[in-house]
Automatic annotation (TrEMBL), chain A:
Transmembrane intervals: 12-31, 43-62, 74-94, 106-130, 142-162, 195-218, 239-262
Subcellular location: Cell inner membrane; Cell membrane
Top-level taxon in the UniProt lineage: Bacteria
Designated name of the protein: sn-glycerol-3-phosphate transport system permease protein UgpE
Every ABC transmembrane type-1 domain range: 71-262
Functional description taken from the UniProt entry: Part of the ABC transporter complex UgpBAEC involved in sn-glycerol-3-phosphate (G3P) import. Probably responsible for the translocation of the substrate across the membrane.
Similarity comment: family membership: Belongs to the binding-protein-dependent transport system permease family.
InterPro entries per UniProt: MetI-like, MetI-like_sf
Bilayer disposition of the protein: Multi-pass membrane protein
Subunit structure: The complex is composed of two ATP-binding proteins (UgpC), two transmembrane proteins (UgpA and UgpE) and a solute-binding protein (UgpB).
UniProt keyword terms in alphabetical order: Cell inner membrane, Cell membrane, Membrane, Transmembrane, Transmembrane helix, Transport
GO CC terms: plasma membrane
TrEMBL record, chain B:
Protein name: Multiple sugar transport system ATP-binding protein/lactose/L-arabinose transport system ATP-binding protein
InterPro entries attached to this UniProt entry: AAA+_ATPase, ABC_transporter-like_ATP-bd, ABC_transporter-like_CS, ABC_transpr_MalK-like, ABC_transpr_MalK/UgpC-like, Mo/tungstate-bd_C_term_dom, NA-bd_OB-fold, P-loop_NTPase
GO molecular function: ABC-type maltose transporter activity; ATP binding; ATP hydrolysis activity
Similarity comment text for this entry: Belongs to the ABC transporter superfamily.
Organism of origin: Ruegeria halocynthiae
PROSITE patterns for the chain: ABC_TRANSPORTER_1, ABC_TRANSPORTER_2
Amino acid sequence: MTRISRSSAKSLALHATLFVVLGFWMLPLVYMVSVGLRSPSQAFDPVLFAWPVTFANFITVIRDNPLTGIFLNSLIITVATVITVVSVSALFAFACSVLRLRGSLVIYATLLTTLMVPLASLVLPLAILLKTFGWVNTYWGLIFPYSALGVPFAIVILKAFMDDSPKELFDAARVDGCSSWQTFWHVALPLVRPALVFVAIWQFIVTWNEFFLALIVLTRAEMKTLTIVPMQYSGLYMANPGALFAILTLIALPLIFLYVLVQRAFVRGLLAGAVKG
Amino acid sequence: MATLQIDNIIKRFGTVTVIPELSLTVKDREFCVLVGPSGCGKSTLLRIIAGLEAINAGRLLVDGRDVSALAPPERGIAMVFQSYALYPHMDVNRNMGFGLEISRTPRNEIVSRVARAAESLHLGKFLRRRPRELSGGQRQRVAIGRAITRKPTLFLLDEPLSNLDAALRVNMRVEIARLKEELNSTMIYVTHDQVEAMTLADRIVVMNEGRIEQVGAPLELYEQPGNRFVAGFLGSPAMNFLSGTVAQVADGAARVDLTAGTSVMIPLAGRVETGQFVELGIRPEHIKLNEDDDGVPVSGRAAIVEMLGSDTFVHVRLGDETIVVRDSHGRRIGKGLDVDLRLPVEACYLFDQTGLRVSRLNGLAEAA
Ligand SMILES: Nc1ncnc2c1ncn2[C@@H]1O[C@H](COP(=O)(O)OP(=O)(O)OP(=O)(O)O)[C@@H](O)[C@H]1O
Ligand SMILES: [Mg+2]
């Protein structure tokens, strides 16, 4: 065999394997869409696709819920959280890793410990806190806790990236006359851009999908986020599975779009720490 | 256009004292080269001058003005880093103009200064490229270009050529020599390379363990090293040292018995005592190999022979000691053969047990 045909056979085998794995991986997702397209009588048929296809469920969930408003709630909370997390953690990582501000390492170590606290144990104290502040049923009531929970992980990533960047670049910036702010903006941020993209996307996904805290903090219908909507269709007896899966499909769509848009940058962020140069 | 005066500075990192106490004056438009073994504090000193490291005591004066408390740009310095430290996300153009941009220099002024620097460094074709799309030598030139666009009064270079291959290094050395003429700013240059130090410097500062061992013009240091450290540090291959004791002190001369077996009569101006331990230093190029000549005869065995084409370095075993002889006659010298050496007395240096050079009569150092 020539080298070219061998390498193309290898790539064929590789892709075939990946497709099989992908097929298994996609099963639940395909099933989700499929059930969303069924009438209630067919809902539990043990087949992957059931005919005829109906869009009734989608019509129901879109008609029953002010989806635009709910979608906007999700979007506002998620975007605000992402912006807060990225800016706070980038600044902190810079202070810690480049400026080496006194005490920043102690704060860093302290923040790391919060990574080990499960959300469930925080919910009750948080609920009391938010109630005291009057933040129940407000955007802030979710943005602040989400940001606080997201910052430590983001700091770990960004600090590792900044620690890895050549220190002489920051010295060069000082010789060029940069203030700390200018060094941060013109040198540090561009250097860790792949990590910033990764952190932003990661935070977006986590926040968009968060359910538990949103359920507790948002009780008024017009404040709800997307993740809470499916609740009403699940209920004790699985009253309307078609509608449940239709709404789940709708929630997943924006994330899938986002991922398709930025997946290159996301993968680069994942790999950047591993392969240097 | 600046005089730098370093006044009794002390630098500690935690409990480690890197620079115990150091004073140095670099004259206006002087090209001053710092040399010394690895870890002796050359980079630290340069970073202190740049304002990147705080000092624990002492003062830095530029043209008589105390700059110890000033930020790097206010000192009028520019620095070329060993790793070049080019901003990877900016193109060559912006890399060179970034300092001016930060200091809010008008746009057209930036453009014209970058263009001039690019032209003088032959970078015109590369202005739109990112650093990673450049070769090592081109990056090096961008790093220098970035420094000269700021028209510094004090120009600091930390081993700027050490990451280049040998051929490129020779080219860049010539470039830097040209730059030195063009810029007429005061330059402080750190290097490991003997040739760079000898050819570029107006004055060489030899450092060791954070102290200055000696300061002087290149040939002055080469011919009149003040102590054993400087004598051994400058020159490649290094000066040979043979241990011995003073056997007899006569009027204006001393007889030294070498451990290697012979004795040498050296005319001295400085004082030595009978029985004192001394070391005799002689440079490889001054030793005569298999030649009938004046000088103290010693014989030994050629242990290693390095033929470079132009020169041959012969490592000769004399008892427990080895000395290196440089022969430029292109002769073939067989390894393992016995050789006769002559040590010309006027080329011998004498160092006392503390390492200081004992001044002599009619020596090379005194003739210079
Ligand atoms: N930030 C630091 N913290 C602690 N010690 C340091 C620091 N920077 C340098 N040192 C120490 O100071 C000493 C001098 O370092 P410096 O980098 O100035 O040496 P150098 O003469 O430039 O060496 P080289 O020729 O290898 O570049 C070294 O012993 C080094 O370990
Ligand atoms: Mg150094």
